[in-house]
Amino acid sequence: MAVQYKNPPIVEALCEFRLGKDTEWDLTIPGQLYEKVKSQFPLREHRTVQVVEFAFQPQNVQQQIRTEERVLLFTPDRKALVQIGPRLLVVNVLKPYPSWKGFKPLIETAWEALRQVVALKTLDRIGLRYINRVEFETSRVDLKAYFDFYLYTGARLPQEYASFVAQALFSFAGGRDHCLVRLVSAESEAQRMAVLLDIDYHWARSDAVAIDRALDWVEEAHSRVEEIFEGCITDELRRILNT
What value does the CA radius of gyration of the chain take, rounded to a whole number of Å? Predict the structure, then answer.
């Protein structure tokens, strides 16, 4: 993130572009896009993936799961990939995170390739998401010692969790953008506790910015994600990440 940690917790980062329904799309587009980026993403696969989506209602957040056919294009080391689905482009990087200076050019390459093969009219969504994993040496951890965003339980409730989820949807840029922040218990080895801090910054409404400003928005979103991450952790966790 903005601070350079010796042991950064990022296990995956992704940037997603969802095109408007008025964008013409056909089965030849993934192949055309592959031809544009194959020098960097030469490995091609077809997969059926499960997609988890969050529907934001006035009083709650609902989770929806569906399947989708995608073409996946990998770098030779398989540490970065481009996903192409119906009116969808996603750029992922995996651990070890290559820094924003390494990730941003991949986003730019894929986005410009898409613009060369598709006549873009509108965008339904852009999102920038960072998934962080923190693993502790013990099986019991006082979350508030390491996080400034955590699940609070009162003194009359048990203080040991079998599992937990804490989440909040924050509003930014005058309501133009939303950020869903989730702190979730994760599977780990026995006698260890692991936590995922998932930060998903995205448009609150379709066509939030002009298509020509899409990459400017991504740069702004990255700055917001950095701020949110630092706001979610304490100095004690910063110490651990620098050990």
Answer: 19
The whole-angstrom separation of Cα 26 and Cα 40 is: 24
* Beta-carbon contacts of residue 185 (< 8 Å; ≥ 6 apart): 161, 163, 164, 165, 193, 194, 195, 196
For residue 130, the number of C-alpha atoms closer than 13 Å in the C-beta half-sphere is 28
Average the pLDDT over each of 65-69, 115-119, 197-201 and give the range with the smallest value: 65-69
Whether the CB-CB separation of 204 and 224 falls below 8 Å is answered with no
- The length of the chain in residues reads 243
Side-chain-side CA neighbours of 101 within 13 Å: the count stands at 2
pTM: 0.91
By the 10 Å C-beta count (0-12 exposed, 13-18 middle, 19+ buried), 171 is classed as exposed
Both structure tokens of 130: 């960072």
Q: Which two tokens stand for residue 53?
A: 């989506």
Cα separation, 100 vs 1, in Å, equals 8
Q: Are 16 and 129 in contact (CB under 8 A)?
A: yes
Residue with more model confidence, 152 or 65:
152
Q: What are phi and psi of 87, to 5 degrees?
A: 55, 40
Give the tokens for residue 49. 């993936």
Residue 71 near residue 84, CB atoms below 8 Å: yes
SS3 42: coil
